[in-house]
Amino acid sequence: MKKLVTNSVQHIGNSPGTLSYSGVRHSQKVQLSYWENSPGKSLDLTLLDNSEIPKTKDINQWINVQGLNDIDVLKSLGDQFGIHPLFLEDILNPGQRPKVETIGDCLLVSLRALSFDETKQIRSFPVTFVLTGTALFSFSELEIDDWLNPILKRLKNPSGALQQKSIHYILYALIDVLVDQYFSVLEGLGDQIQSIDENIFKNSDSSQLDALYQLKKQLLYFNKQASPVPEFIRKMPNELPEKQWKAVKIYFDDLLDHSMQVQDITKTYLESMNNLFDLYFSLVNLKMNRTIQALTVITVVFLPLTLLAGIYGMNFTTMPGLYDDFAFWWMIIGMLCLSILILWFLKRKQWF
Question: What is the DSSP string of 129-174?
Fold first, then answer.
């Protein structure tokens, strides 16, 4: 079973807001990408130094930060844009539960990016969004870069909604991409469930039980990562100013609907898994019962034959038919007729 708590010892006794990265460390540098909705700005402008990021009040800015192992870069961004140290601490904790929280003018949204690796196992990475003024930050691990591709394509359209709407709409769009990926993962899990469902009647050996167990573990892990999303979307109206919330309410309502669909499908899949477990054990019990039934029929047939053989095997000098030349064959014919009679009786009683 995967550990639920990792690298927690190093944080014991630290004061709130102490910055310490608890994830997997990389030798690669933190990568920063910058975008703003003003003419003449490059979409994929990669910044070598975070000091090059301009701070504006009237222009929507999106700063994507990939890699969380350089605490100095994150602390510098926090100082420049007023990101609260408690938020920076949450960003550096990959095991953070999905949530939404506000401190002052700073909004934090934390959730997980889910996808399949090459072995068809679910991989999960934290993605954290911080909104301060008109600046939106997205923080993620170095390993994930494909989740941004749909947003980057939309930003290339100068007349698209991302170019025209508020920074809160961009936040919605980024969260929506991650929730859409949940459907892709669910589709893959559904295919695996269907495959097991189709094969379980053909083969109910221990390999099927192992496949069921591994798949249920993945479903439970997926549910753990995705189930809090509807909860924090419902909290969004309390975390945003009323005017800003009204502008994006219909979009977050749609996002809530999608996240609820994810939750409902996950529950259905978990119920299907429980049904498959019940079906598997029923098939195993049926196979065992058939084996016992066959052994019982054999025992019932051979028990009277063994009795006859035992009687005529007794060491007496005088027995009926003992010295008859055809006694052996009469005994064989009698045993055969008795066996047929017993089988006919058992068949009539539907024992087999």
Answer: EEEETTEEEEEE-TT--GGGHHHHHHHT-TTSHHHHS-HHHHHHHH
Q: What would the mean pLDDT of 241-245 be, rounded to a whole number?
A: 84
CA nearest 308: which of 323, 319, 297, 298? 319
pLDDT for residue 275 is more than 90? yes
Contact call for residues 150 and 177 (beta carbons, < 8 A): yes
pLDDT one-digit tens code per residue, 145-155: 667 777 877 77
What topology does CATH give the domain 21-282?
A: Beta Polymerase; domain 2 (3.30.460)
User: From residue 133, how far is each of 55, 103, 157, 161, 305 by CA, in Å?
Assistant: 10, 12, 24, 20, 94
Q: Which amino acid is at 146?
A: D
| Model confidence at 240: pLDDT above 50 | yes
The pair of structure tokens assigned to 322 is: 């003992």
* Terminal-to-terminal C-alpha distance of the chain: 44
DSSP E strands in the chain: the ranges are 31-36, 45-47, 61-66, 99-103, 106-116, 122-132, 135-140
What is the tens place of the pLDDT at every residue in 20-67? 665 555 556 778 877 777 655 544 445 546 656 777 777 788 888 888
3-state DSSP assignment of residue 120:
coil
List the Cα angle 305/309/315 in 5-degree steps: 160
Residue 294's closest CA among 305, 302, 282?
302
Q: pLDDT confidence of 207, banded at 50, 70, 90?
A: confident
Distance between CA 139 and CA 68 in Å, rounded?
7
Q: Report residue 100 as tokens.
A: 């939404």
Asked whether 10 and 20 are in contact (CB, 8 A), the reply is yes
Confidence check: pLDDT of 301 > 80: yes
- What are the domain boundaries of the chain? 21-282, 289-348
Tokens of 126: 């934290």
CATH 1.10.286 is right for the domain spanning 289-348: no
| 122-132 and 106-116 strand pairing | antiparallel
